[in-house]
Amino acid sequence: MNQLSTEINLKDLRHKHPNDIAETITELNAKERILAFLLLPGDMKAEVFTYFNHAVQEEILKELGSRETAAMLETMAPDDRTQIFENFPDLLIKESINFLSPEEKSIALNLLGYPEKSIARLMTPYYIQAKKGWTIKKALDNIKRYGKKAETLNHIYIVDKENKLIDDIRIGKLLMADDDQTIESLMDYEFVSLTTTMSREEAIEQFNKYDRAVMPVVSEAGVLVGIVTFDDIFDEIERRDTEDIQKFGGLEALELSYTETPLMTLVRKRASVLLILFLGEMLTASAMGFFEEEIAQAVVLALFIPLIISSGGNSGSQAATLIVRAMAIKELGVKDWWYVMRKEVLSGVLLGLILGAVGFLRIFVWQQAGFYDYGEYAMLIGLTVGFSLIGIVLWGTLSGSMIPFLLQKLGLDPATSSAPFVATLVDVTGLIIYFTIAASILRGTLL
Asked: Which end of the chain is flanked by fewer CB atoms within 10 Å, N or C?
């Protein structure tokens, strides 16, 4: 693709959303990507750059000089710039910041000075504020003067002489008021805010609780220092949920997306958990070895081992999934463990009765229809399978529901109680339950 055709394509792209432009440029080969990006207007470069994945961002930055990089970062929203800095090498951060204007340099250093996972890293210092003694006309004039640079115009923030936040007012309410009214006449002194030291997880909870599109950020002393918009919080929610799903699936969380993660990194993160699960499953072989005599005397029992242990693992995974998600959305806390245990005991018994009845009927029907001959003690084998399913499903349900509470009590992430981990635990203990019940029912007959 030559430069002329690149320009023609870009003319069509310029009327599209920056995310669509980023997607189109990403599909080009490396050389064309750089050329297409460089041909974008200066102000559009900053917008489009934030939508590239990490690999493309790094590729483009290698081609740009420090001054070109700084020029792009200069026009970028402070919160987007801070997120990009988090993935920059330290040397590049230092060089880029030094080329920023004094005002933007101060903002960048201030945001980078907050703890890495704090909500302050995501805030922007561009918002509209006013004093309670102002008239509506003065406030609107202030919006017209500074509004273009503001991240959002949903609210105007009212501060006192010390710049402490005392209220927020919707712009719509301001527009409906008379010009000579004062800001104070519209105030109710009821507002919600985030603090700079608050973690991003806590901030997500606040956004969900109050159903806000934007929230102010104040210092520990109550001084207004910035705002956080929901688009930034949405990115954090997506990142958090992706990490939890990966952990629950039985692997270490990935720092980058699946497509950007190098093969060996992916293998390393998956192998560590698989190795632990494999060592756990080796206990299954040990358990079967312990009951070797019973299996030798009644080989028919071995036919139902896959059925028994998979039912327990599945019920445990189900319970763990329900509880981990309920804890993630704050529907359940550690204090609710007793309520969950009572509910899961009943659920486990009922589910076990359903599967146990089906298991018993399976053996009974197959025996009567002549599909398989379980011998003269077919009914006892059916009862063994039926009662074993009740016990194992109950145990699986209890294990899957209680492990997340135990992990949270220990200060660990409940999401690490992955489905494979619960299934492995129930596999080993399920065999013990199965053969213990078999020994009790079949003693003196098959055994």
From this structure: N
